[in-house]
């Protein structure tokens, strides 16, 4: 299916509508959408992937009936807050505990009592909300939601097509369910892992992980550098993902990056973390090399395009965005479990290096800046792994599945 180019105004209006819809569940349900996308907020990658797919669907057909639900927040706000608190607390303060939980459920039997129990979380509330006007197709970018949909299909309560978009570069049992019609995965490695787990090849598509459509755009690098008032001749280190670091370590990492002996500029993205942004700004007067400190930004696609090296924790969406931009990554302090797997994927394929300590981080950055041909090779490998059109691919398959269902519907 050929994509129809959209104007900037079309993109803005569609994107704004999707952002609004994702936070207004009653509006989603009142539309009785034929396509329902289910996400969650544990890390923002699941929701970002959902929005990327939704945008491409609207660009294909502005009249398509579309809804987005933040699954846990919808079915049980109290439980959502508890799980969110537990997740954030464990990955910050007890990462070994989170690693244990992730690994202990890595290969759980989809038909086990534990998995069946997980697949019933929020199911009654979800089914009650949809049963009178069920969607024709459901897309899950969060594993628990995929399990709930699969269970409802197995019980004969739901007849929707069930698509699953996996948002990391590893296969975890929480994603695998009997009544899934198609898995969209980020790499050939993941396809092979699913095949090893007896998922039919006909149900697997290597689409890449969906990211914002702006990661396909050409970037005016000189303009972006000028807007930040940075030296266009210096390599740029882009530091993201520090929100999970202890405060003292965060400041130490800033120093280590700044004190790399090769002249460079460091761009620090603090996001919504006001404390970290203030600490970075307090460090500025003593910086040995130019440093730019930013809060929340909506132009990561541009900042990645002008950078030479990303320092990050290997979240699924951030990892994918860096691949789409051909940006080599140094992984530091990934969240145990899924981000360990993302880090291993980057390292194995030559698109990243992993730093296991602060000292290691400084040595790797220094080495790569002193050996730019190695950076160039890593950038080439990253670009080869990226699937900047993943959201379009997933949206096309959704659209085709809807058309096929209509073609075979009883007269």
TrEMBL record:
Protein keywords: Glycosyltransferase, Transferase
Cellular localisation: Membrane
Signal peptide residues on this chain, from the entry's feature table: none
Glycosyl transferase family 28 C-terminal domain sequence ranges: 280-392
Diacylglycerol glucosyltransferase N-terminal domain span: 46-211
Main localization (coarse): membrane
InterPro entries from the UniProt entry: Diacylglyc_glucosyltr_N, Glyco_trans_28_C, Glycosyltransf_28_UgtP
Top-level taxon: Bacteria
PANTHER family: MONOGALACTOSYLDIACYLGLYCEROL SYNTHASE, MONOGALACTOSYLDIACYLGLYCEROL SYNTHASE 1, CHLOROPLASTIC
UniProt record similarity statement: Belongs to the glycosyltransferase 28 family.
Entry protein name: Galactosyldiacylglycerol synthase
Organism field: Sulfobacillus thermotolerans
Lineage, top ranks: Bacteria, Bacillati, Bacillota, Clostridia, Eubacteriales
